Amino acid sequence: MTHEPPRPLAPAARAVWDRHDERITEEGRWEAVDHDLLAVYAETHAVYDELVKAILETGVLVAGRRGAAKVKNPALPALQATRDSLMRLAKSVPLVDREVADKTAEFHRWMEGL
Known about the structure:
Layout lengths: L10 H16 L8 H24 L2 E3 L6 E3 L2 H18 L5 H15 L2
Antiparallel strand pairs: 1-2
Helix pairs in contact: 1-2, 2-3
Protein name: Terminase
Organism: Mycobacterium dioxanotrophicus
């Protein structure tokens, strides 16, 4: 069962919403997350995916104004800012149960020490 977002989302953002909705519901945490922020996260993730696609299509370096010299793709700063926003939003939603994540990380560190 998927939940409806608090407002209509574009198809790409809705796919992100549905993916996280399913996982969070399975974890039994649906009532513990901020649904409005999850919608913002989904929209931001869709923008991030579009920026990645644009950079992959045009390259990290693109022709400058005069055409001769290559310059950094102007989408790169937007990509970095969007990625930073995703990381902040993921903590605010929260996308992950921090207590479980910390215990899992502690267990993995213990296993590596064996």
